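Batch job 17 of 40 flagged for manual review because the log was empty.
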Amino acid sequence: MKNLSTIKSSRHARLLQERDSFLCNHPELQYLQKTIDEKLRNACNDNNRLVIIHSLMMEAVAELDDKLQALVGNRR
């Protein structure tokens, strides 16, 4: 677990350990988590973090929608 100095509570530490364990079991998601961590590292405050997370989620939804539209278009 990186950045031990940024851990704010024992709950926070436990959740980070759970995340790391999950990523060990799903190595295909490690690159995505690294990308998220890099974007959040420079957020400066909680409001900015929420804006970044929202943006990432909307990008993912748009990508899924594009894939769904392609699938639906292929069935017609």
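Reviewer: the log was empty due to a logging misconfiguration, but the result itself is present. The helical segments are 10-25, 30-41, 46-75. Unflagging and moving on to job 18.
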